[in-house]
Amino acid sequence: MLLSSQYAALGVLLIAPTVLVFCAVIVYPLVSAIYLSLFSIYTPTLQGKWVGLDNYAKLLASGEFWGALRVTLVWTIGTLVLQLVFGIALALLLHQNLVFRSLARGLILFPYFVSTVVAVLVWRWLFNDLYGILNHVLLAAGLIDMPLDWLGQMPNAMVSLILVGAWKYFPFVVITVLARLQTIPDHLYEAAEMDGAGPVARFFDVTLPQLRDVLLVVILLRAIWDFKEFDLIWLMTGGGPVTSTQTLPLLVYRSAFGLNEMGGASAVAVLMMLVMLVFMALYIRAQRQE
Amino acid sequence: MRNRSLTSRILLNVLAWSIVFVIAFPLVWMILTSVKPQFELFRIPPTILPQEVTFEHYHRVLVETPFLKYFRNSVILAVGTTVLVIVIATLGAHSLVRFSYPGRERLAQLVLFTYLLPSVVLIIPLYLLMVWLGIANTLFSLMLAYTTFALPFALWLLRSFMQGIPQDLEAAALVDGASRMEAFVDVILPQAVPGIISTALFTFILAWNEYLYALVLVNTDEARPLTTGVMNMLITAFNIEWSLLMAASVMMSLPVIIVFALLQKHLTRGFGAGGVKG
Amino acid sequence: MAFDSTLKTGVSRRAVLAGVGAAGALAATSFSTPVRAQQATLRWWSPQAAPAQREAYLFQIAQFEKANPGVKVLFEPTSDEAYAQQLAAAFASGQVPNIVTHLPSFAVQDYWAAGLLEPFNDVITALGPQNFYEGANRIYEIDKGKYAGTGVGNTAANMLWVRKDLMQKASIDAIPRTWDELRNAARKMQGGGIFGAPLPYGRNSMTSLIFIGVIHQAGGQVFTPDLQVGIDTDKTLAALDWYKSMRELCPAGATNYSWGDSLTAFVSGATATGIYAGRVLANVTRQNPGIADSITCAAYPTISKDVEPWTFNDFPSVFIPKAAKDMEMTKKFAAHLFAPEGYIKQLLAAPGHVLPVLKPIAADPNYTADPIIKKFQKEVDLMAASAAGGYNLGFESAKHKPNTKGGKVVNSHVIAEMVQRVCLNNENPKTVLGETAKKIEEIMKS
Q1: CATH assignment of B57-277, among 1.10.357.10, 1.10.3720.10, 1.10.10.60, 3.40.50.300
Q2: pLDDT tens-digit readout, C123-164
Q3: Does residue A10 belong to any structural domain of this protein?
Q4: B43, B216, B220, B236: best mutation site toward chain C, by most C Cβ within 10 Å?
Q5: What ipTM describes this predicted complex?
Q6: Which of A19, A13, A5 is nearest to B181 (CA)?
Q7: N or C: which end of chain B has fewer CB within 10 A?
């Protein structure tokens, strides 16, 4: 860092636009949100009165917040685990010498890049109760004898969501893991093979330890993004049936715009951030201790 | 890599390609549906391949709906966001990696913290801000709003890229008499190009696909992007026209496919190099 | 550094709020000053924007722009599920559309009560109050002598649609009049890939609205005439019980049905009965002409012959936000929407769906000559009569006071949630109903 210290002013100048934008579009709205959470506000008029911590007290006493938190955790953990399993498996597979390997990679990565709106439309069409291909294939194969209600009943709705979430986001795991796989030196495998390790042992003894750092980051990022996911769930089930798939972001949105209670909605959002913060702190701490 | 028997290689290929097919099937189905005549959709059992191929739905989407207007908006929006974010983030990341000043570490932590922010909570304050600035309901206001998630992401990604560029290169340039900015432009930037391309692609795609901000912040067709536009246009209380929706979906995905097909290598390589380091 | 600006922006947040208030006040005073030249851009929102309707709107706009050089009108579609938050954002910022059409009347009542709307009296006067159907405007008269808006049409949203060919095949000779008859008929017609009915069980406004109708068809009500919560009765329990028993006669996906799905299910021939407004006619004619000759409609059945049918009319409205710019021109445009040529085009974009509110229009030969209106004259007349005697949550019966919280109750989805909990989750109806009544009370208090 020898040459760095003399140029502090230039460094500050270069970071200034970032800080400016951060303050304008992140810090300021965030502070506003916390401020708003202390009021009872009717969204269209933005008229509010000070209620202090009442919004929080009400939330913590209501089943709705805890229910949404539970749903959020189920969704996040469910979809995250599937993403990791599929992602690592597919990365290992795509690392092999396949015919048209780059085409296969392109196709695999596509769900990640396609718009959530498109993904939801396509899946809702696949899931359609009357004309959906999925029910017909399953009926024809004799796996079910009545069309399945994919999105309107529990536990189907949550399972469908988790599956579509995994389909949409596992390519992120594939990309990162694949990139790391390519940098694992061959001699590590050769040495392991020499010691008589089979493919499974090689995976656990060589591949996985090498992937550890990447996976820690991937898990952190994906957990945060899945926790915050709004579009997919909102467009897929809207939180139904009843509130079985209503995650925290949906609760925020519904309080703010369905019930026009900006203050209560902000309080949910603030609590949601706190939950994430706690989880992230625990995660980073555990990671450091290892 | 290692020797394998022919059978196991064929098996591997069959397995891999069947999985790829299953994963890509929804997208294949989207394309197939979009070229079937409407009456064929409601047939029980459904036809797999269209018995009659028609491009009528594409024609209808393009001619009878404001699809092209939304498309134009989305292009401007995604490109604008990408340029804005990349310029700011490249400078910022360079500063975070190669300079030292008080508060630098805290700033890097703040970047990570902003990952936690759910978009829903920023929306109303942001909208008020846009009104106050006199830019509400414009594409520019959406670009600014998109920086809330795109900038931390880009900054974080570019930062890890730039950490991978050896210090001595810049030091050598400085010894040769270059100023810091010259060294940045001549030495660091060329080295960072793969990272910048990859970051730009991700930003572009994030902006192209964004839904929530567009839903709340913009309520005029003049600035409405495809995501909310298409939902508004075709999922309505009076009719759900699946064939039109699928045709619109295909066209909506085209830019992503093109960007992706042309730059896939950059994307994977660049992203790996940057993302791995954490 | 970051914290300094935080403090600063923390202050300006209040300034923004004050600024918004000032902007509203400015806008409020601006229409007492004469309209400057004829340079204006008017924004028009509607959730009814099927391609054919949009075409009719553009025709109306073109006519208006021709008659008023320098004025530009932008049509911007919204949707039934999204209008609430889009308008909330628009009102919050002061950047409102000039005119909003086709929202249900209870939304208008809600915004009026919050003081967000411009009285509509001038436009009604311009149109001639005598031209409206009897009582068409009473739901908008929340404060004595001031109208929050007016109807742009009438809709009989919960008509029972049936397929005569399927009825014949199942040897049912009369259109069901009671719930039991309907259930039996649906059961007989179900089979071979065809379901009995497309009733909605989704967590959305359709389920709430349809079920409010079912409560009334059981002889119950959601609110008493003086707006106390009156939902917790045996009648609602009977409604829940019947609605639940219909579940097995509806397609699997009905658990997520909203208007579009329900309509498409009947039109595509997947269900033997339907529940919708007049748009069925246009859609069947275009998408499934094979069944066009065998469809007809009737008022939705009730629990017994003693209970009169209750038609849900969402009273598609038109209103003007108070903060709209160019108020004179906006009012002129609002009146223009009812000018016969354009208004008839608009109505005929979905014949029989949005029915005219002006008597002269209903009798206009240009309107009655439409082939669909002609072919389905009996059905259209029935829907017009039903809609004229229709109600909704903002106005549950002739005895009820206008309910300015109706929109809130619907948008909170409490009623749809009650339906889902009882019909899908098999929870105890009594407990659920008690809790629902409490939730509605809370909404009324807030």
Answers
A1: 1.10.3720.10
A2: 999 988 888 887 778 888 888 889 999 988 888 889 999 999
A3: no
A4: B236
A5: 0.84
A6: A13
A7: N
